[in-house]
């Protein structure tokens, strides 16, 4: 049975490129024929490319891909490879003389788990495009290969993050999907509020970021993790939206991030959500789309850590009992 995924949205493909030695990678959400886009940046330490372009008052209406990448700011170079792949196939914004592919991007910080001197580049971005199809691998793959969560005590308390996806099709045939790379400062919780991946105590059991912070953990104790986090996501729908509505969809989808990650949107995270509309169907009320987007994003976040595997001594949720 096919697992619901963001690629259930008509016009959306996903590709991964993974460096299992350096523990970094790229995940690309492709909409080659164009998708109306919006973005909402809530974290205090974002790393992004071409997000200003998505402001509803600005000229360009559609994007051809969104890149989610490891490598911190270095990893933004992967978007160049995505641009090249699209350009070679004639996709992009027509400026008369040529077509310019529009490719926003966002990064996670994964330099602390693998090699800090190797990061995604244009070649890896190109490879992710070449691998794109409707099948979406989850867990420790693509931009999620180096993702971790629960880093209030640094890597000593961390567990594995990863890539997750989910979708829901409404009664009128409109689909809303999400894809996320979970690399949070905080913990991931299930719908009942139980921690399934997060900060571990001295005996390796889950104690949770909130408990450690409330217990008097000093700012200095997690100073070395400042800015080393970030959850980045794409929500997509085949409903027809303009840029303002796509932006509101991204804003509402952030609720799903806050439900599944505690705390979210911290000074140390660069939490960013992109929204894409491929415009196949007439749109239901925006409030409906936004509510569903939050739900599917929350599910995708949980799936990301459930699908992750233990790497470099950092345990995955499947190897640690939930709290």
From TrEMBL:
Gene Ontology terms, MF aspect: aminopeptidase activity
Transmembrane regions: none
Recorded family membership: Belongs to the peptidase S58 family.
The protein's name: Peptidase S58
Gene3D superfamilies for this protein: L-amino peptidase D-ALA esterase/amidase
Pfam entry (one): Peptidase_S58
